[in-house]
Amino acid sequence: MAFRLAPSAAAAGYRLEAHESVSSTNALALEHARAGDGGDLWVVSSRQESGRGRRGREWSTPPGNLAATLLTVGHFEPATAATLGFVAGLALSDALFAVVPEQRIAVAADGGDLPGGRFALKWPNDVLAEGAKLSGILLESSILPDGRFAIAVGIGVNVVAHPENTPYPATSLKALGFKGDAGDLFLALSDAWVDNVRLWNAGRGLEAIRKRWLTRAAGLGAQVSIRVDGRVARGTFETIDEACRFVIREADGSLLRIAAGDVHFGAVASAQAD
Which of 203, 225, 206, 228 is nearest to 270 (CA)? Predict the structure, then answer.
């Protein structure tokens, strides 16, 4: 397997560091930043031995899957930097639509409707394929001695294998009929990133990113539950707001804006969140 940057990414000044195996692409990218790397560096591998998801959860990357981290360095407000996760989700979904065959009919993993389309974005950091988890996105950061912010945008994708016996259904690109490899997906991802990060424009284009993200949002208009402030909130997924917070309309009609949490959809929402 060979990893290559898309010509558009190379022309935009991005660089590539590819590995057969790493402990964590995010950790390695941040090490480079602390050693003086100026960013716009992709660190990629088809195997990751000590990857992490949100809240310290393990993210397994067996051989053949994709672990990719984009290192960006600059003067960012933390809240602005956090919205790069939405840029990553859009870039990955663009790449998936570009490389995965379309002959299969999109049906959700639970047999129900598929809000958001075949590849849908689940707030805040997952990409679903036909309703099952395909990818996770994790942002980690470090403040550098000169005051700049180093941000590692980690993207893990189940290309050839996916975990079994998980709380949510999971899938892989191989199961969807994808005949390529992690290198093929990364090539498309590096291309799609260029367009989406330009649209983001250091946060100045966040409203355009928000609107585009909503066109691919999983569960928009559906019943959801989420644990917040020591309770389980339930309602209808209305939108994400100007700060990309999750907005639900509760039974009494009030709007609740949530900055972080695990969202559960549909019929399983009550049981999973409790």
Answer: 225
